[in-house]
Design a protein that fits this description.
The complex is a heterodimer of chains A (334) and B (258). Helices cover 76% and strands 0% of the residues of chain A. By secondary structure, chain A is an all-alpha fold. In chain B, helix 6 (171-186) links the parallel strand 7 and strand 8 (190-194). Classes of the chains: A mainly alpha (334), B alpha/beta (258).
Chain lengths: 334, 258
């Protein structure tokens, strides 16, 4: 890494972290009840009475929701970067190729099979399981020999199919504990609760940590799978492991906020010009920027048309769609 | 370190790309692999590299069966310049060359100084110093080829396998690659190169001429590069004439069309 590049990386991390901190504070502060930053600080230090309205909103609703947004954004952003490295294209993320949908099916099945008053933490496990297994199959589909385009197109088809049957399942069972159809199409952080956010965060941190460890090997894939193998990267086991880690992280994040698209396409596109293509830098950078993005968009989703809440996926798709078109154009014109 | 193929057959969908090929490449030898399109040159190299598992027979590298070596151990034993069409590489030349040091990561026995020197040395050897910070995708075909060879060199392996190393290179860089082959040879490394340009074959000590998946001839360039042998294998009349200034040969196709 050259000096100029490393200075830019350090500066980038500083700016991104500051943006994340600001977005987090913003998300805690504004909403149906506006809470002054001073009160948030008092709440953090334990100085705010438990009966205080601000205190109840913060601990009961806004803090779990904001933390959930951070986990979801970090997972979707960084897995987008990793998937783009694995598949050697900018036009792929967990949502586009159906990994999020598969995680959603796992979450739906978990919620149906394990009914309780609230969403049980076990949906993190079922989401992660389905996400991981499905991500692994995307590799097998790609093995057919059609290359990246086929992986993406098959992923889109599989994603639609899975989402459709998830919808049938969700509409078919009359169970208030199961999230609504909208949750599995557009996502929502409305119901984010600590009992789900915390286990999902733990699972995601472990999965992303393993992905980060494998990162330098994933960089080699830019030279082609064969060359990566020639320089000693165990593509046969490491690519499947990486995909499973992507699926596990994404699946567990779906348990928090449902199926939210485009984060993994938007974030790496923004982050790569500043931080470069190396996964060791890209994964954490995309995690921070992804977290900030989801926090800001979620805050907008619940405040713009207040008291109506806009599903977060609608705004994200509205922002991400044009970026996808631009990416596709660039990919073809290259 | 020597490299050996014993009765190797490689079949793809019932079609033999190589059939019953046995070759021994002694440690420190320089071998050129030649033959017409579809003769099995790239398959031979891929099999020697461990990319392709033979349907029959075995490949031994330093006496050990190649498919029993871990990817990392293998990468410390042989480096490969493959024919790739991967062009959209968003890494700098420096980063791409440094990827050749991947098998030495997390190795306490290899200092970062040693890694840096291997990368810097390879960059200087392939004359890509001025391109160091450029993105690989912004390079010309020849510059990209030199970057790839630099990566192979940075890998510092006793066995070096090159698939058409001089493709896309101008005469000056073609010659500097040949000089590089000579230098690797002086370091006792085993070199195998698949070549299309028969005029550079004289740089090598040994030649393997492939024809339809079998070895048609092998031996010293003077023994293999004969008009009769080449004309029969390439199915086209070829003249072999002595080079005017040194002991190499010039291989020229006869002009049959008006």
């Amino acid at each position: 890494m050259t000096k100029g590049r490393s200075r830019r990386t350090t500066f980038g991390f500083a700016v991104a972290s500051a943006a994340l901190a600001f977005a987090f504070l913003l998300s805690l502060s504004i909403g149906a009840v506006n809470i002054p930053v001073a009160d948030i600080v008092t709440w953090v230090t334990g100085g705010l009475s438990e009966d205080d309205l601000g205190s109840r909103v913060l601990s009961g609703v806004r803090f779990p929701r904001s933390l959930g947004a951070v986990v979801v954004g970090a997972v979707l952003g960084s897995t987008g970067a990793a998937l783009q490295g694995i598949n050697r294209t900018r036009v792929v993320d967990a949502h586009l190729i159906g990994i999020s949908a598969a995680g959603g099916l796992g979450v739906a099945l978990g919620a149906v099979a394990l009914p309780s008053g609230n969403l049980p933490p076990a949906i993190v496990v079922t989401g992660a399981l389905f996400g991981g297994l499905y991500a692994l199959t995307t590799r097998m589909l790609g093995r057919v020999g059609g290359g990246t385009t086929l992986v993406v197109l098959m992923g889109i088809a599989a994603g639609f199919t899975i989402t459709a049957w998830t919808g049938v399942l969700v509409l078919g069972v009359d169970n208030p504990a199961v999230p609504t159809l909208s949750f599995f199409i557009f996502g929502s952080l409305v119901g984010a609760q600590t009992s789900v956010v915390v286990p999902a965060a733990v699972v995601s941190i472990i999965a992303l940590g393993i992905l980060w460890r494998i990162g330098p090997g994933l960089d080699l894939l830019a030279l082609g799978d064969r060359t990566a193998k020639h320089v000693g990267f165990d593509t046969k086991s490491m690519i499947p492991i990486s995909l499973v880690m992507v699926g596990v992280a994404v699946g567990s994040s779906v348990a928090i906020g449902g199926v939210i698209g485009f984060v993994g396409l938007i974030v790496p596109t923004v982050v790569r010009p500043i931080f470069g293509a190396s996964q060791r830098v890209l994964i954490p950078a995309a995690a921070i920027v992804g977290a900030a993005l989801v926090l800001v968009v979620d805050t907008a989703a619940r405040t713009l048309l207040s008291p109506i809440e806009i599903p977060i996926g609608l705004i994200m798709t509205g922002l991400g769609g044009p970026i996808l078109i631009w990416l596709l154009r660039r990919e073809v014109l290259r | 370190m020597n490299l050996e193929m014993r009765n190797v057959t490689v079949s793809v969908r019932g079609h033999d790309l190589l059939s019953d090929v046995s070759i021994l490449l002694p440690a420190g030898s320089r071998t050129a692999v030649i033959g017409p399109n579809g003769a099995g040159k790239s398959t031979l190299l891929a099999t020697l590299a461990g990319d392709v598992k033979p349907s029959a027979g075995e490949v031994r590298i330093g006496g050990e069966q190649i498919h029993l070596l871990s990817p990392r151990k293998l990468a410390r034993t042989r480096s490969v310049l493959a024919q790739t069409h991967t062009t959209d590489v968003a890494f700098s030349v420096q980063q791409a060359v440094a990827m050749g040091r991947f098998p030495y990561r997390f190795d306490a026995g290899v200092s970062s100084e040693e890694n840096r020197m291997a990368v810097d040395g390879a960059i200087a050897d392939l004359d890509v110093e001025s391109l160091r910070d450029r993105q690989v995708r912004s390079l010309s075909g020849g510059e990209r080829q030199r970057t790839a060879i630099a990566r192979v060199l940075a890998q510092s392996t006793p066995i070096v396998l090159l698939d058409e190393p001089t493709t896309a290179l101008d005469i000056r860089h073609q010659e500097s690659v040949m000089a590089l082959v000579d230098r690797l040879h002086s370091q006792q490394r085993t070199i195998v190169a698949v070549l299309h340009d028969l005029n550079v074959v004289s740089h090598f000590d040994r030649v393997i001429l492939l024809s339809r998946g079998t070895v048609a001839a092998q031996g010293k360039p003077a023994d293999v590069l004969t008009s009769e042998l080449l004309s029969s294998v390439y199915e086209y009349p070829i003249d072999v004439v002595p080079h005017p200034t040194d002991d190499r040969f010039l291989i020229l196709p006869q002009r049959r069309h008006p």
